[in-house]
Amino acid sequence: MKDLRRYLVLKYIQYLVLSSSNAVSTFLGLLGSLYTIIILQSAKVSSKSTVVLISSLAKADILVSVSIVSEMVVWAFDVGTSSTAFTSALLQNLLTANTHISCLLLSCVAFEAYLITFFPTESRHLRTVKNARLTSRIIWILVIAECALFQTDDLLMASSTSAPTQSPCILLSHFPSTAAALLRSLSYFLGILLRIVNVYIYYKIFFSMSNR
């Protein structure tokens, strides 16, 4: 559990403290996720709701690995310009999906820590493995749908630049573009809100433990 706590601290720094990811934090995050996945295979680790959330958090870095490997393949084989634009948009959307999944899962872990600290008995029926798995699935589904919308918007935008002004592609691109713009704005404000909520939760937990 100490290793899992260190991993959570690393992820909190990577996604909720740093304003943006860098090469060092990304590399350390990938190593931490790989190590965590290995640890979770051990029979010594009991199946708890927090462990389920941490496992899903570690698996989210698979999106980062796919993005990095794909970028290396594109660079190595010198793919054409149009394919490169498509791939670049896809890789960026995968990184965005990874960030959003990680932030939401970290917030779920923080909320569970809050319930354990202040409402240990009352929240026991909520803090179950079944609910943790359901929460993880919902987060993955929602974020993957968001990623698909962003990718569709990027594809339609790329098509509209090479199409005539009155082309149906331009007319079709209005709705996905508007939805994607609204979703990006919502994600930005949600990210700020999650940072504030996480700071507040751990502030309350820290002073509660100190008073005890």
From TrEMBL:
Keywords: G-protein coupled receptor, Glycoprotein, Membrane, Receptor, Transducer, Transmembrane, Transmembrane helix
Subcellular location: Membrane
Gene Ontology MF: a single term: G protein-coupled receptor activity
One matching Pfam family: 7tm_1
Membrane topology, from the record: Multi-pass membrane protein
InterPro entries: GPCR_Rhodpsn, GPCR_Rhodpsn_7TM
One Gene Ontology term, aspect cellular component: plasma membrane
Keyword Cytoplasm recorded: no
Statement: the UniProt record of this protein carries the keyword Transmembrane: yes
TM annotation in the entry: 12-40, 97-117, 138-159, 179-203
Top-level taxon in the UniProt lineage: Eukaryota
GO biological process, one term: phospholipase C-activating G protein-coupled receptor signaling pathway
Domain called G-protein coupled receptors family 1 profile: residue spans: 32-212
Name recorded for this polypeptide: CXCR3 protein
Organism field: Stercorarius parasiticus (Parasitic jaeger)
